Amino acid sequence: MAKRPIKYSVVDAFTESAFKGNPAAVCFLDDEDERDKAWLQSVAAEFNISETCFLSPIAGSGVPRFRLRWFTPVTEVDLCGHATLASAHTLFSNGLVDSDIVEFATISGILTAKRVPDALEFNGGEAKESFFIELDFPLIQTCEDNSSDVSMLSKALNGATIVDVKRSASDRLIVELPSWESVMELQPRMDEIVKCPALGIIVTAAAPTGSAYDFCSRFFAPQLGIDEDPVCGSAHCALTHYWSLKLNKCDFLAEQVSHRSGTLRIHLDKETKRVFLRGKAVAVMEGLILV
Question: How far apart are CA 61 and CA 105, in angstroms?
Fold first, then answer.
């Protein structure tokens, strides 16, 4: 029997503008459509963007709940913020859930997304409600890094001056550089980053005095099939821990300064060790997977 076509949307997350932020392909599987992991990975490789995710409904819960899996072009990952935001945006904006809250059952447990009204936008005289999506994610702890050679890291970052290095519980290195400009202007060497003993390198710096932002970052993960992830929500779960200790605060406005760029509003709940990531999204494409 031929498989039924699968609907998908491509959504740019953590942005208010199309072709900015981080694109994710959101693919809808019904509860009877079983696809094996090799097929899911093949679809992600076909899209060849930083993340492709797969949603399928779970019946019987009070709050709308969906299974959610995330794939880069080469592997399945255990946490992805921007694809979760893209999934929630698709559900909310298309009226696919009758709720302002949706839950996702994932490899990292139950994750919640909440629709938060912002304002009314006017397009051609027509009023349209604008909204943020707030993700409830786990805090990712950071600690001293004792296994990385600073000279190797500096080489991978093309001779950049390194202020500090920490390792996250998700096996990413957080490397602080001296300034916002040094993060923006960085031209890393992917062939050297692949050799580093981690699943990726997050470079970051504090915002200059007087800026509305608190810190900026970029994320390089050629080991995961993504040379540079344009805007990474899960990286900010670790950056939140790092900068909360540095700046002694719990609320942040962060900018990922990739060529696409993206903005995240962040709140840390120290008591529950949860990170609330808030951002917007824009749908740019819809289609069918036919195989």
Answer: 11
Rg of the chain over all Cα atoms, to the nearest angstrom: 19
pLDDT digits (tens, 9 = 90+) for 94-151: 999 999 999 999 999 999 999 999 865 555 666 566 899 999 999 999 999 988 888 9
Question: Going by C-beta distance under 8 Å and a sequence separation of 6 or more, which residues neighbour residue 8?
Answer: 25, 26, 27, 28, 286, 287, 288, 289
Q: How far apart are the first and last CA of the chain?
A: 12
Q: Which amino acid is at 152?
A: M
Residues 6 or more apart in contact with residue 149 via CB below 8 angstroms: none
Nearest to 277 by CA among 99, 78, 97, 14: 14
Q: Which pTM does this prediction carry?
A: 0.94
Q: Per the structure block, which two tokens stand in for 250?
A: 């719990």
Both tokens of 128, joined, read: 């349209």
For residue 103, how many C-alpha atoms fall within 13 Å in the half-sphere facing its CB?
12
Q: Where do the domains of the chain lie, and which CATH numbers do they carry?
A: 6-138+278-289 (3.10.310.10), 142-272 (3.10.310.10)
Check 16, 32, 46, 51 and give the catalytic one: 51
Burial status of residue 210 (CB atoms within 10 A of its CB: 0-12, 13-18, 19 or more): exposed
- Give yes or no for a contact between 50 and 267, defined as CB atoms under 8 angstroms apart: no
> Is 51 known to be catalytic?
yes
The tokens of 56 are what? 């399928």
